[in-house]
Amino acid sequence: MITLEKIADLTSALRLTPAVVSAAAGALGLALTATPSWVAGATSAAPQTAPVAVTPSNDSVVSKDTSIHPFRVSIRQSELDDLRRRVLETRWPDRETVGDLSQGVQLATIQTLVQYWGTQYDWRKFEANLNTLPQFTTKIDGVDIHFIHVRSRHPNALPIIVTHGWPGSFVEQINLIGPLTDPTAHGGRAEDAFDVVIPSLPGYGFSGKPTGTGWDPEHVARAWAVLMKRLGYTRYVAQGGDFGAPVSSAMARQAPPGLLGIHTNFPATVPADVAKVLAVHGPAPQGLTETERVAFDALDRLYKFKSGYLVMMGTRPQTIGYPVTDSPAGLAAWMIDHDEISYGRISQAFDGHPIGGLTRDAILDNITLYWLTNTATSAARFYWENKGLSVLAAAAQKTDQISIPVAITVFPGEVYRAPESWARRAYPSLVYFHQADKGGHFAAWEQPELFASELRAAFKSMR
Predict the structure, then answer these.
(1) I need a labelling partner for 1 at 20 to 30 A (CA). Which of 38, 191, 238, 250 fits?
(2) Residue 18 in contact with residue 41, Cβ under 8 Å?
(3) Residue 434 designated active-site
(4) Which is the catalytic residue, given 383, 416, 427, 432?
(5) Residues 107-137 pLDDT 10s
(6) One domain for residues 196 and 236
(7) Is 374 left (phi over 0), alpha (psi -120 to 50) or beta?
(8) From the candidates 144, 242, 300, 339, which is the catalytic residue?
(9) CATH number where 117 lies
(10) For the segment 160-186, what is each residue's pLDDT rounded down to a tens digit?
(11) In the chain, how many domains are there?
(12) What range does the domain containing 64 cover?
């Protein structure tokens, strides 16, 4: 049987023209809603790397389409050439007037990154590796959701859906796939195996961009439940860090049938009294333990001096979208200025001393993904959709309404290290709490083996 997927494969291989593809589809009684990006000669105002919706001509209700389509990445060479030209033609500002990070990304760091990006970095290598993974898209609530889905060869593997945040993407979590699906090759046991689902948030990566409002963490959480049901899973767990944490927490509150528990490395543990003081930059409350005071001080510095990106994207995502959409160097600087520890490790990678999986190529895989999919602005809107709710405050995330099991891992290089005392107050159903000895905000990226071992331990009681 000839299908649209086979047409896609054939056109990609033979570089057929839009006219030929349309004629072939018409002859088969199929309709293309637009010219797919994998067709040679297709043009548009912005890069079109995600698959265009393709439906049988007699299906008039696209919103009811629950089908799942294979997905392959194929970026036009002209897009890569344009990116390299823009990178090499970067117009630079003056050097910062201080010797620290108080004014933001340092000129020497971003120039080193851009030089490598424009002269040595190879997207095609990443694209080829990515296409060895089983990737798919499916439409949920009118938006195409891209996801990687790898089943374990071990029987009775536990399905897990892992959600990224910003400035991350599925790139952060690719190196988790091996240790999770094949634990016996990575220091685990066969009974520790997971089936792994890694979706791209709406507006991120190869997922579609919402054209209206309402895609907040609560909506994404409901969509992820739909996705797991559509994949045939009747029992599964969820994991999230950064903005994937409020998505996973929302899933836990919603408690869809089959969700056994969640794990997060960015827990919403900040108590209401502490959150109130932090909001007005007040002094630390009385009675904090030493560990709690360390956490308070880290959060105080974050809210006073390090959260410019959060405020800007949470209030003016469209405004920040113009410069980061027009300038690759601007996009890169914006993305690496997340937190000081991560920034230091990124700088170290471009100085030739990477930490774990946080290599210069992996960092540029992620930044280039944002550029080629033109998703800097749509990704920023996710912060606006969150409506100013703190992702770290227990009350804002309604953690006391979670009744299913919760597991937490605290990594030492995180923007704040959640005290266990706060965690147990925030999550009544906490079943696992552990402090790792290495790793930071992007722990799955930096330390995939360690991160995978944490997930094995965290979900052991939920299998």
Answers:
(1) 38
(2) yes
(3) no
(4) 383
(5) 999 999 999 999 999 999 999 999 999 999 9
(6) yes
(7) left
(8) 242
(9) 3.40.50.1820
(10) 999 999 999 999 999 999 999 999 999
(11) 2
(12) 4-69
